Protein: B-like cyclin
Amino acid sequence: MKLIGWRLKWRMQRTQLWILDCGDLKDTLAVVEYIDDIYAYYKKTESSGCVSPTYMDRQFDINEKMRAILIDWLIEVHYKFELMDETLFLAINLIDRFLERCTVVRKKLQLVGVTAMLLACKYEEVSVPLVEDFVLISDNAYTRIEVLDMEKLMVNTLQFKMSVPTPYMFMKRFLKAALSDKKLELLSFFIIEVCLVEYEMLRFPPSLLAAAAIYTAQCSLYQFKQWSKTSEWHTSYTEDQLLECSRMMVSFHQKAGYGKLTGVHRKYSTSKFGYAAKAEPALFLLGGL
Structure:
């Protein structure tokens, strides 16, 4: 009986993979033969890139609000330099992992931010901005030597561990499972970028953040709960497992255009990003809270 159950599960898995990836069979870059193993590995190792959701308690001169201001500004820098999405998510991951391990005075926090963006560019980009570009964007608050010294400190502190699963890696796969169109994709990325600014979202692993962002975007677009069996299969999350995170996302979506930190909202209020920020938040998910 156990053997029959295993075979049935294996056949179901192969069917799900075929449905999702059959269109990419001739694309060697899609690595259809290995894609499921790759994402299983990402899921298994995602904790290696996570930080304690209370690490800021060990910082004596910076706080959650300062982190939020820094990341909101870095999202604008990322947009100004026209960098890849992967670069933004990695840069913020580097910042959090570094701050978890090293105490930083507030006047050096922006230096940590631009250095993390520089490192992420070197890892992800084909054409990397110059150190001088980051000095200039920081209004010459730091010198070239200071940036390079911080770069050495960061890579040594992180033991050169740059390749960690970020929410971006899961977003691309999970959007495919959700049969996403451009509208859903842009709204999902708007929601998850809003979450990058929020320190309290560090409590959720990258895969859950990605799945919840897509689920929340679907609820926002269609104004009813929607989470297919295919999405559940490929994300390994049920709708119930996403709800807590999703409700927090709805609250952030609701207030994204207000207050002082509106960088993500302004970015996604442009035609380039499909005016995604103007979508109505899925307030019905907050019912009963």
The two ends are 44 Å apart (CA to CA).
